[in-house]
Amino acid sequence: METTLAEFVNRLKDAAGDNLQSVVLFGSAVAGEFSAEHSNLNVLCLIERTGSAELAQLRPAIAWWTEEEDYPAPLVFTFDELRRSAHVFAIELFDIKRHHRILFGADWLENFQPPLALHRLQVERELHRERLKFRRALLAAPEKPKARLDLMLSFVSRFCALFRHAIAAAGEPEPRTRREAVSVIAAWTGADPSGFDAILEFREGKRKRRKIDLEAALHAYVEFVGLAADEATRRFAQFR
Question: Which of left, alpha, beta for 93 (phi over 0: left; psi -120 to 50: alpha)?
């Protein structure tokens, strides 16, 4: 991982020159929950100018990162763009602020405070939206065990992140891990966490697929997501 990150930074520097201001690693690779099999390396780049010519300069480095290394394309902003639109990306910047590592440039995040005025509303909206996205995907997925397992895996990180945000937005201490977030939501709602526990254990390599009752796990998973979204709405009502 370190060699790959260093190579990417060098390619960005060679491509962008003095237009590159900062490269930031964020997400599970910094938060201590990285899985080589299931996680991505998430990167944010700050550049001084974002004209078409400047973006084209970045293309070879980003093509190497996305096509050869198979990681998602970095987020690319100017600092002014990020500052002006920070309220729109409150969830993302909340996470980046707490779990980041500067790969190049100054640590501009040290004194950067994401505006959280709309954070609670965004968390509530995203919880309900992700619930609907999962439901639509489930309805479209083949009724095969592997398809259902893959579907739950593909959503588990996003749901756990939103659970963590919901807990913080409700004024409670932010959980440090996905498991802690699931545990708090279970305590809030009385919901059965076994579906999430099973998927997280599988993701961490602690449980084999054959040891998971997928029908029971899916039932608990779906119910847990719905109760979490509804409970967040109920708790956030006091702040309106």
Answer: alpha
Residue 62: give the domain boundaries.
2-111
- Can you give the CATH number for the domain in which 88 is found? 3.30.460.10
pLDDT of residue 96: 87
The residues of the chain scoring below 70 in pLDDT are: 34-36, 38
Distance CA 206, CA 176 (A): 20
Number of domains in the chain: 2
Specify whether 99 is located in the same domain as 129: no
Compute the chain's Rg from CA coordinates.
19
CB 39 within 8 A of CB 123: no
Which among 119, 129, 65 has a CA at the least distance from the CA of 88? 119
